[in-house]
User: Fold this.
Amino acid sequence: MTTELLSLHRISKSFDGASALMDVNLTINEGEIHCIVGENGAGKSTLMKIVAGVLHPDNGIIKFKGESVRFKNPKEASDLGVSIVFQEPMFFPFLSVLENIYFGDELLGKFNEIRWKQMADIAKNALLNMGLHEDILKKPMSSLSIGTQQLVLIARAIHKKSKLLILDEPTSILSNAESDILFRQIETLSKNGLAVLYISHRMDDILGIGQRISVLRDGKLVNEFSREEANRDNLVVAMSGRILSSIEYNKNSYVKSEIPLIEVKNLTNFGSFENISFSLSAGEILGIYGLVGSGRSEVARAIIGEDDISSGVVLFEGIEIKLKNCAEAMKLGITYSPEDRRRQALFPNRNLRENITAGLFQKIKNKLGIINSNIEEKIVNKQIADLNIKTESQATLILNLSGGNQQKAMLSRGILHQPKVLILDEPTRGIDVGTKVEIHNLINNLAKQNIGIIMISSDLPEILALSDRILIMREGKLVGEMNGKTSSEIEILHLALGSEQENNKESDVNIKGDNR
Amino acid sequence: MGRKFSSYIPAPGKRVYLAIGLLAFEIFIFTIFAENFLTIKNLSTVLINVSDLAIVSLGMTMLLIMGGIDISAGSALGVVGFMIAQLLFKEVHPIIIAFVAIAAGTLIGLINGLLITKFRIPDIIATLSTNSVFRALIFGLLGGKYLVGIPLKFKRLATGTLFGIPNTLIIIIVFFTVFWLVLTFTRYGRKVYAVGDNTEAAKALGININNIRLATYSIMGALIGFAALLYMGRVAVVEIGIGSDLAIRSIAVAVIGGTSVTGGRGSIIGTIAGALFMAFLKNGLVLLGMPSLAEPAVTGVLILLFVGIDVLADLKSTGKIKSRLLGRRLNIVDNKSKDIL
Ligand SMILES: Nc1ncnc2c1ncn2[C@@H]1O[C@H](COP(=O)(O)OP(=O)(O)OP(=O)(O)O)[C@@H](O)[C@H]1O
Ligand SMILES: [Mg+2]
Assistant:
């Protein structure tokens, strides 16, 4: 027996004349896990924000339990039992975890005073359910790792006894262990009647937990599958409207150079990583795999001079370098494309063009040192085409792009510098399957042009598909090196999780998540 | 067990220990080097003199936590002070005067708040401008003279004692307790923190940011009105420079106490420590025979120092600087390129 909880009727929404959603119909039943998939910019987040009262539809009706509703703001939606975890985490960094969980619906006593103790008791449970330790309750949000922050935000959404939970790409910043906890939690809750709208680009997750799967393409609902009907291929076809060729790449065969492009010897930064040694040849793709928090990004940041080095050396083309910051690194030809695009890369109030060409002044200036907007426009147009960036125009504010398209813009900025060494940190986080293939091809082509590529990724299939060699990191140490062509997922996971993986997998991650 | 019970109430954060430690150190130093420092008479003088600053600092702390600031506090106190003086000359009943003073202060705060919310003028520019206007107003009203011989109707309030305890001490304790309760146990109080911490998130959660701003600026105004009563009771003179260092000193009080100038963080306990620190500083410097000009200089340096400490601590905790102290690791490379564009 299914009871309809919420239904959308002919919802349309456009931004400055550009249509983002057209006549979308959707129903969500009580206790149902309903997945929404679609390419970057298909309108998934927009639709969710409409359901949660953040955005207002231009046309169409929302019915909640059969009654037509109009949410003026997210609070009204939340009071009816709709809670949302946004694609871009939104929280109060200096307020405690407890406050972040309860903000806006504090428990009040006789005199309207906030009942901290009572709130703490309930919040503890909410944290435990997400596999987090209650000790973090008093810590400020900013002191947690981004994975833990995300789990806290999910705990916030869940504890409210809501009827509908919206999760917009919740796992893109979670480790595998953290994701598993989330899935188990979602499944328990849905058995108790909670309806879940779940957005993700990870096909395995979608096929694993989705009971119904709706596909959005260019703002229209094009297909709806039941769990039994859906499989990877028909989902991809529905999303992109075309059949994707196989995901096997012709790996280029790089020649191991005599003098490596980059060589790292015994690199150590106490507290982050220890004794890291490896080398990278021109044209090689070196994958670095490890759980979130294993020190991968820190190593990359140390190489480009943005994090400290306690001991050890970095050689670039055989010569020892001591970089002070990433500007120096870029001059040498080492470019880093960071994982946390929002904090480390984006200029939120600037448009797409400026975000792509930021730092590219040398290439787009004319003889007088003034920016030549013709050249700039051409360069950017090519990037938009190459990476398939979905945007109204070059002048669109970067924040108005969908999450995946922001990621592509950041990637193209890195590529445009024509570096000798390109360090990509989670290059396809939040990017849809179709584009992922395109980006993988792009990375492959860059390697063929003799660029040395270090690719940090938590996406094991991605690492395996692209890397010539794979380094595996655990808790700040290099625990293995594998041949990208011959190794298997199991072997790598084994190394990354450590030997007692099965027993300690979860607790391990939790403890680390708290104090990064 | 008792500790455990109270421990989920939002705590002021470690930074407050620095303020308290510093206060203790200051008292220690002045006790050794200034003979008359640690006497009942001197201490109660200090308490009397700090009362208006302490009250205004409470409002400044709330504003800073909310991501606001009020540069006009001193001239606003001057304007209200002038009104009080005129009413005293006319022998209006003190209770009515008190009521008028607080209402006038609130109105001034509301004006600042409206400029900031309705006309979207950045806090610092709005209050810097009203500061200028109020100062000119005082000048015009005074016509180049001093107002002296003002009836001393508020002298008892500001300098008297109750059961041997200075009135101002009681006033300060009551105000600080009430504001601590408001900031810690009311939704309004937590919203003040939230707005300063992440305005976007606050908006997304359906908070009416402008109402919070209006309320907080009005509260600041009311506090200034009350402080003006204490000031007139204690000083009983209105001259052109009235309150001219109040804004900067109250900012110093808040900042020394650990309130962040970028919003989201700060505590009433810290502000108590900061207020006492500033009060003893002024007093101690005088007792040591330092020229009175030293005080503003010290105030300025203290603000720079403490804001500096907080910035460094932030960078350190976010990992942007690690072992090295002052740093390059500010993630500014990209911002530089933004400036070029
Ligand atoms: N505030 C806005 N102003 C203008 N355009 C917007 C705004 N928000 C979204 N858009 C546009 O609406 C379209 C749909 O965006 P949306 O964020 O819903 O995509 P998405 O399906 O969530 O993609 P992704 O998988 O990348 O997160 C995009 O073309 C985007 O540029
Ligand atoms: Mg999205």
Summary: Confidence is low (pLDDT under 50) at residues 500-516 of chain A.
